Every structure is written in structure tokens, then in C-alpha cells.
């Protein structure tokens, strides 16, 4: 542990302002007094409560008397009763608006400050919490939307997720005490549909000496894919290994510059080998070296909007443009699931599935809700992601969600594609919440200049991110493209894919075979040569 101690001392001679706030009081003391705080009125809300303590419970001040509430949905599994209640809460208190997020959870918006305590009580009543969904806490643990029922399923991860949550969830000793946020993902099947490489702590399906388990990857964050630790973790070892990782991060993590306080920077300072040795020492386990990685198939939704599962089941996709949903539609989704004997699973692509028996697929697709979203079952919307944008995020540079929808609609009209797969991800600013860095075609909001030299909304365009079998960041090919021009440029890029792809080939595979072999300048030249 010597290297970890030395690195920590070197970086923690001064602490940031958030660390100073943590010393003022216990987050639980604020939660316990929330009803009284709400009754005192928004004008009396304390600055430290708004900036830190309320965020520990997923309550985000929008500076207009309303709040965004981030709702924890472990593994994206939402029961019928929970869906009905969350939908009702959204209708009653939040303008009937819901965002589905890239961590398989839900955000409620426009909640009046005076109603916060009431909303939290309604959610807790049906077993849903907002605890630790913001600031320096353990964020929602994600897994495959098809966990336990995918054709290539080796280990069901939901029981493990519940074990991991028992370590920290609603535990005072873990409330708001980390140096920075901590994202975790665990995948038990060979189909990576949850961006498995993009988290601080990643458990990937693997096999060692005939035993199924996980290879441990660590240090992922926006713009950086997690690195293999060299350790193989058996299912029964996941909990003690996780406990060791978070204990080391809590004790030795950096607390000075918040832009460089994620686990990635601690590992970067001491080296992965040293950190892995510390995990083994702290856990007291004789862990084996990495096994054979079992990422076996690319995540695909078929032309009928379904994913075939094991045991005579299917996952029927409801493709939600940019994750913009409503309480009314969530209540309807609950009814569709109930009538078909199915269940709701949220996805990291800001949409959801109803998982049901084969014979119930027709009933699901015959619903008015399915018909409402059926038009978005095309190559441009199915794998679309877009973060909040200027409408609801103070960091946003461009509107983003509307921009993503407009481009997808334009491309579907101008260049409809049969089959194939394209992942278009949009981030409204460099923070990258839309995970544009792993997209086939990624967009990062920026300011640009139009043809007359006037300032306008624009995007940097990235190509070639990888997320299926390997982790690879996309390359920035175009800088500061006005949004009015971007859709025509992307049409040319997609035309290349349409003309040169092999039968059934995804953009990710096409890029690996062609564009990845070219320099950015050569790609630009190739795109410029496309007519139309």
C-alpha cells in the first residue's frame, strides 16, 4: 500500500470546495429534515444543501424553484407497480415528463421544491429510492437489459447487484464520502449491450479452468475505456473484491482537483499492477489471473424490433427518441407488460424493452403504445443516445435532444436503410454525458460559425468508437460543424456505409474494415468524394 499512500499524500495537500462542504454535517441530517426544509420555502434553501447535500439523494436544484430527481433503477428492472407509481408521480408533480438515462434509470423533472419530500415518500413506498444517485456516491449499477435471459447468458447478475448495493446503499458511512462519483457495471452474458468498458469498475464475463466468472476492468470514465486489471473474479468473490476496491478508493483517492479525482487517476498514478496487488491484499483472497473473455456476439435488434432470448422469450423494443418519455406513457407501458405477462427493462440507450413469451409478442405489438413508437424502429433511432442539452442542463452548449431527433428524422427520410446498425450518440458539451466517444458517429456540442461568419450551434463529429468486443474511443474527424451543415455531412458518411458495407454488416464492423485504416484527412477526402 506504500505507493497508494505516497500518491494520496502528494495529491491531497489541499482539498477542493466540495470536500470542505462535506465536513459541515451529515447528509442524513439533511434528509431527515427534508420535510421541514421544504416547508421553509425555496428562498430559504441553504447554499450547501443545494450544492452538495441534496444531491446525495438525487435532488438537483434547477435554480427556478424546481428540482430534477434522479431515480435509482438497479439493473434497469422496473416492476409493473413501480412503473405505474413513477408514471403517476411524473404526471402529478413533474409536468408528465420523464428522461430515460444511460444508466438504465429515470429522471423526473420540474418537481416543485415544496413537493420533494412527498415525491420521495411515494417512491420509497414501492421500493424505489433516489439515494446516492448524484455527487460523490455509487451511481446506479448497470447490466444487460437481458440479464438472466440472453441466449449467451452465463451468470445472472441481478443477485450480485443486490449484494453490491447492500454494501453502500443508505449506509451512512458511505453517503457522499467518496473522492468522486463511482460507476459500476457487471455483465454475465456474451452480448455487450451496456457499454461494459465505460465504468470505474467493470466485471466482464469470462471463463477460467472451466469456471464462469468475470475479468475485472478498472478506471473507465468519459473519454477513457477501462483497463484490464489482470484478475479473474469468481461470482462469490465479486462482493469482497468490490469492497476492497471502494475501500482503497475512499482511503487513497484524490480530493484536490475534482476534474482529476476519479479512480482512473489513482490507478494512473500508481499503476494497474500495484492497484491490483492492493486489491488482493485488502480482500485477503487468492485471486487467479484473467480468464478467457466471453464477449461472443454483437448486440442486435432485428428488423421486427425484437431481440430473441432464451426459454422461448423475446424482448420487444420500445425505441424512445433521445430518451424523452412521459409519465402517461410509462403507466401505459406498465399495462402492456401486465396484460402480456411481461416485465419492463430499461436500456442504456435510453429506451426500454418489454420481455415476454414468444406467444405474447403480438399482444405487445398490438398495443397503442407500441404503435405510437413504432415509427422510431429504424437504424437511426434504435441505438440513438442524447444527453439533456440546454433546455435542462446548465453545461449544455446546444439543445442536443431536439438536434439528435431532427438529424435522425432527416436521415430516415433522405437515406432509409434496410438492416444494418448505426450508433449515433450526442453530448451537448465536452463532459460527454451522451457517451459520444464510443459511438459509430458521435457528436459533441460546440459553437461554430455559419457561412456569413455568425456564431451558431455546432458539433464536433467523431467516427469509429467501439463498444461490442473491444473498447475504443472514436476519433474526432470534423471540428465545429454548424448543425445546419452536419446533417448533410453525416448523410455522406452514411452513404459510404450503405454503398460499401457487406451484407448485414454494422457500421462498427464496416469502420474496422475500412475507415479505421485511414487517417482523418483520408476519411474527409473519401467523404467529400460522395455525391449528393
Structure report:
The structure is a single chain. By secondary structure, this protein is an alpha+beta fold. It has helices spanning 2-11, 17-22, 27-32, 34-40, 47-53, 80-93, 116-125, 158-168, 238-252, 263-270, 272-283, 327-339, 361-365, 368-374, 401-414, 483-500, 507-513, 520-528; strands at 59-61, 66-71, 77-78, 98-100, 106-112, 184-186, 201-208, 211-218, 227-233, 288-289, 292-293, 306-308, 313-318, 324-325, 343-346, 352-357, 385-386, 424-427, 441-449, 455-463, 475-482. Strands 6, 7, 8, 9, 10 and 11 form a six-stranded mixed beta sheet that branches. Helix 6 packs antiparallel against helix 12. The radius of gyration is 23 Å and the shape is globular.
Features:
single chain, 532 residues, alpha+beta, six-stranded mixed beta sheet, five-stranded antiparallel beta sheet, 18 helices, globular
